Amino acid sequence: MSKADRNRRQSARERIAAQQAAARKAESRRRMLIAGGSTVVVLVIVVVLIVIKLSSSSPSDAGAGSPSGTALPAKVAAQITSVPASTLAKVGAGATVSGSIKAVTDTPLTSNGKPEVLYIGAEFCPFCATERWAMAVALSRFGGFSPLHGIHSSATDTPASIPTVTFYKSTYTSKYLTFTPVETTEVDKSKTLQTPTSAQSALWTKYTQQGIPFVDFGNKYVVSGASYSYQVLQGKTW
Asked: How far apart (Å, rounded) are the C-alpha atoms in residues 40 and 63?
C-alpha cells in the first residue's frame, strides 16, 4: 500500500470518528433539553397549582371563621375604648333587660394580687356578642386591650350574625384589676378555643349552670346572659 493510500484511509477514519463524536454530542444535548424541558413543565404545573390554591382562598374567607377574627379599624377600636366618662355618667346605671346581675357572697376572686373579672363565653353566641361591647367599654376605663378583633356571632344561631369583638388572643393590662376571658368555642362551633380550669368551671356551674355569657366580678357580682337587648345591634356594622 502506498503512502498516499494510507493517508487517505487515515483521513477517512478520522472523518468517521469526528462524525461519530458529533453525533454523540448532539444526542447528549437532545437528552439534556428533554430533561430540562421536563423540569420546566413540572415547575410550571407546581406554580399553576399554587396560584389556583391561593386564588381559591379569598381574604374575606380567611377572616370569616378564623378564631383571631378581623383586625378592627383604628377608628372603631378608639370609639370602643375611649368613651368619655361624661357620656357614661349620662347613661347612668342602666337596667337589666334580658340578663341577670346579682350580688353574691363568696371567697374573693383575685389574680396577681388584684380583683379578677372572669368572663366565660363563646364566639358563636349572640348574647355573648352583645355583652362584649359593654365589657370592652367598661374595662377600657381601667386598662387597655391589645389588640381587639372583630367577629360576628354564628349565622346559624338566633339571633344571627351579631357584630361584636372577641376576647380570644387579646391581652388586657390594668393596674387595678385582672381580666380573664375564656372564649370556649369559635364562630362555626367546630373548634374548642379555650377550656375553663376546674376552679373556673366550679364558679360557672355554681352561679349559672354553665350558661353563657358568664361574668364574675371578683365573686362580688355575677352576670348571666346579656345585660341589654341584642336587638339594638342587629344590622349594624362594627
From this structure: 36
Band the pLDDT of 223: cuts 50, 70, 90.
very high
Nearest to 160 by CA among 184, 132, 122, 124: 124
Return the pLDDT at 147.
86
**What residues contact 101, with CB distance under 8 A and at least 6 apart?**
221, 222, 223, 227
Cα–Cα distance, 171 to 177 (Å, whole number)? 13
pLDDT at 43: 39
End-to-end CA distance of the chain: 105
Nearest to 131 by CA among 162, 103, 157: 162
User: What DSSP string describes the chain?
Assistant: --HHHHHHHHHHHHHHHHHHHHHHHHHHHHHHHHHHHHHHHHHHHHHHHHHHHHHTS-HHHHHHS-TT-EEPPHHHHHHHH---HHHHHHH-S---SSSEEEE---S--EETTEEEEEEEE-TT-HHHHHHHHHHHHHHTTTSEEE--EEEE--TTSSS---EEEE-TT-EEE-SS-EEEEEE-B-TTS-SB-----HHHHHHHHHHHTT-SSEEEETTTEEEES-SS-GGGTTT---
Q: How confident is the model at residue 227 (pLDDT cuts 50, 70, 90)?
A: confident
The model's pTM is 0.70
Residue 130 has φ and ψ, to the nearest 5°, of -65, -50
φ/ψ (deg, to 5) at 18: -65, -40
**Rounded Cα distance, 141 and 177, in Å:** 11
